[in-house]
Sequence to fold (383 residues):
Amino acid sequence: MVEFTHMVMGPTCGMLLGDLGAEVIKVEPIAGDDTRRLLGSGAGFFPTFNRNKKSIALDLKQPEGVEAALRLIATADIVSENFKPGTMKKLGLDYDTLKKLNPRLVYVSHKGFLPGPYDHRTALDEVVQMMGGLAYMTGRAGDPLRAGTSVNDIMGGMFGAIGAMAALRQRERTGKGCEVQSALFENNVFLVAQHMMQFAATGRAADPMPSRISAWGVYDVFTVKGGEQVFLAAVSDKQWAIFCKAFGLEALQADPRLKTNNDRVRARDWMMPILRSHLADRSAAELSAVFEANELPFAPIVKPQELFDDPHLNETGGLAPIRMNDGSTSTVPLAPFTLDGERPGIRLQPPLLGEHTDALLREVGYSDAEIDALKARQATRAG
Fold:
């Protein structure tokens, strides 16, 4: 796979395929992927989404850089890109051009929008969350709020990888590649489909999540002893009975107004204050222990940085050592699935800029003298 990607969406596609064993060659500009230098919320982008890749630095504004890219593509099964519409065509690296050179090529485009009235717009994760209903559903009424991670970028890259694998399977039957397109806006709409269909089924618009009518009677964050918070749930009649017995709430269990889950949903206005008061003097740890012992759903309220010390992640190998942009070492979450009981691991650390330039150019036929000439023209650089 040869990828011409930056930021999150495109790199996620390549990372997942790299995790699954693909040789992924990341073509970077001479100055490197901008995410190598981002601050704030973008400071972790590069090490998060660029493991299991090789880096080659090419200046695609020079014909020599494009020629080197074409030689790499000639050896590839997949090309992936997430530039603005028209960019790859200007470079002569678009699908219509490349498929003439290699009809078996699978070409993955990650865009803001699938082709249509919006496809000329510049999209970001936050843009499509606002226009696609997700920010409305996440925030309180009148206060649309971006979800707390790059959900569309990450999932858009994931769907690009799924499409690429499907295209490779199709190629086995037909002998021909195809273009796969994945887009932020359509991904976002896929995520909010359940709320669209709630309206279709009931005729009532979905309320934002903070003010929604819950589908379950007990399904909330409780503030308890010392101001701690814990999420507690009882989502079936059986769980309600277990919950009431565990906390001495037999009177509520016997109340005919609370017999079924739907009854409890309708009674939340008066039922929840009783439950909150009853549990308020217990610590989050005590409540968690009771819920765990009784196989009831619960969750501590955890900050992202606290997950580095999560015992489950550490004991199951869910975190692996990763090289950061400054050369230091941290750990990073692996792909969230197993194959024969093993999580796909890290074979290659996130590459240094141009770390594999010389080796990759030699593989596609460049001599050392030709590589030196490319460097002299600043059409390439080595790490």
Remarks:
- DSSP finds 18 helices and twelve strands in the chain.
- The mean pLDDT is 96.
